[in-house]
Amino acid sequence: MTSESIKISVVTVCYNAVDTIEETMLSVLNQTYTNVEYIIIDGGSTDGTVDIIKKYADRLAYWVSEPDRGIYDAMNKGIAAATGDYINFMNSGDKFVDNDTIKNAVNIFPNNIDIIFGDSIEKDNQNNIFFKKCSANPDDLKNGPTYRHGASFVRSSIHKSHLFDLLKECQFGFGLDYNNIWTLYQEGYKFQKIELPILIYEKEGISCNAAKSHKYIFRIIHQAKKPTIIEKIKYEIYHFLIISGIYRILTSIIRRLFYFGTYLYNDPIGSFPCWRLRKFLLKILRTKLGHNTVLNMHQYIMHPQALIIGNDSHINRGCILDARGGLSIGSNVSISFNVSILTGSHDSNSLNFNLRYMPIIIGDYVWIGANATILNNVKIGEGAIIAAGAVVTKNVEPYTIVGGIPAKIIGQRSRELNYKCNGKLPFT
Fold it and tell me: What gap in Å lies between CA 401 and CA 266, rounded to an integer?
């Protein structure tokens, strides 16, 4: 099956959502991928939602407005109406990251995979946005949800045979979508992550109650096998910490300890001429460092727990590595002096100067020249060269050479690369 022939069914369920439904609808209707059918299941809204739906009715594959038994009953109706190869749920208030999201996702769909999922972007009540990277390991699903439901595409034939189990709604509440995912995982269906942010979602929602979420997840993962005494004790302790507010206090303390550890790396220890010591501290701070990778002294690292660096890479002195939005650096990457890689920024069109944290991905064999700047939401392809002093604001294609402000293509690089960067020198 070619990417153009894959039909995507997008389902939006809503009820009295007049303030959010149009933005969600336009996010779907403006997708550049053409093989999409859009289905809306409204629960009998009385606030003007239906008038907005009717405004775009000629662009919808199917819509209905009638009373239902809640969100999961509505979602089951959407599954029944879908005729595509894969189903995505884009609920009112959520939206795709951009107009090319479905096209970009389908172009990298893996073959013979049942459930495909990606990363998400969280928007808080002040319109600040934060990139949320999910686990790529499907086995993590057995312990709890790892990705947002709206950031996934489920094979339609599977969803039609595995509807949301309304008989368990009283027991699992708003965790019924995770129960569906957990069931598919337990039955051996194939999950795979694609490295692409799919969804922008509102932080506030029905599933933001931490105590209820913990309770529902515990019930779901133990529905087939009763928990052991130790598991019950751990659950009760954790649940108590949540409802008492102690968990929030502990989280705040741990966060401060991470900030203190980051300060130690960036200042007193970051200037100490012993890579082994600096590497040890970075690993305590949960930075993922590949084999034979070296960071020289005088780096300034923000949010080291979101920094990933592959094997045999070398980062020279004086660089700023801002990983607040997620920073992934590949293998055999050479980064020269005083390079700034910035995943944090602000929305230039925002009256409130809203924060914007978006990822940067740097492929294998990339060479970044001295004093270059890489701005957020950029992917630098394998083997690319960023010339000294360049400012990169857009994606860079593999094996291209870019330079200038803003960076533009100025040449091409050989594709026959086979080297390792060696930064292991004394007192660096």
Answer: 31
Instruction: Give yes or no for a contact between 17 and 45, defined as CB atoms under 8 angstroms apart.
Output: yes
List of E strands, 25-175? 36-42, 62-65, 86-89, 95-96, 115-123, 129-132, 152-155
Q: Which pLDDT tens digit goes with each residue over 107-147? A: 999 999 999 999 999 998 888 999 999 999 999 999 999 99
Q: Where does 82-175 have alpha helices with state H?
A: 101-107, 156-161, 169-172
Cis peptide before 406 (omega within 30 of 0): yes
DSSP state of 15: S
Distance between CA atoms of residues 380 and 401, nearest Å? 11
| Catalytic residue ranges | 346
Dist CA 6 CA 158 (whole Å): 16
Please report the beta strands in 138-228, taking only residues with DSSP state E, as ranges in sequence order: 152-155, 191-202
Mean pLDDT of 243-249: 92
Q: Please choose, from the candidates 291, 283, 135, the residue with its C-alpha nearest in 3D space to the C-alpha of residue 301.
A: 283
Of 170-179, 195-204, 277-286, 315-324, the one with minimum mean pLDDT is 195-204
Decide: 323 and 359 in contact? Cβ < 8 Å. Answer: no
Q: Give the C-alpha separation, 399 to 393, whole Å.
A: 17
Which residue, among 80, 66, 87, 62, has the nearest Cα to 15 in the 3D structure?
66
Residue 234: name the closest of 248, 258, 251, 217 by CA.
217
Question: Does 206 have pLDDT greater than 90?
Answer: no
Residues 25 and 12: their CA atoms lie apart, in Å, by 8
Nearest to 372 by CA among 394, 341, 339: 339
DSSP string, 295-335: E-SS-EEESGGGEEE-TT-EE-TT-EEE-TT-EEE-SS-EE
What confidence score (pLDDT) does residue 209 get?
A: 81
Count CB atoms within 10 A of the CB of residue 111.
6
Q: In the beta sheet, which residues pair with residue 104?
A: none
Residue type, 144: G
Task: Specify the pTM.
Answer: 0.84
- What does each C-alpha distance from 269 to 210, 258, 264, 298, 313 come to in angstroms? 37, 15, 6, 9, 21
Which residues are paired to 95 by β-bridges?
Answer: 200
Q: How far apart are CA 383 and CA 363, in angstroms?
A: 7
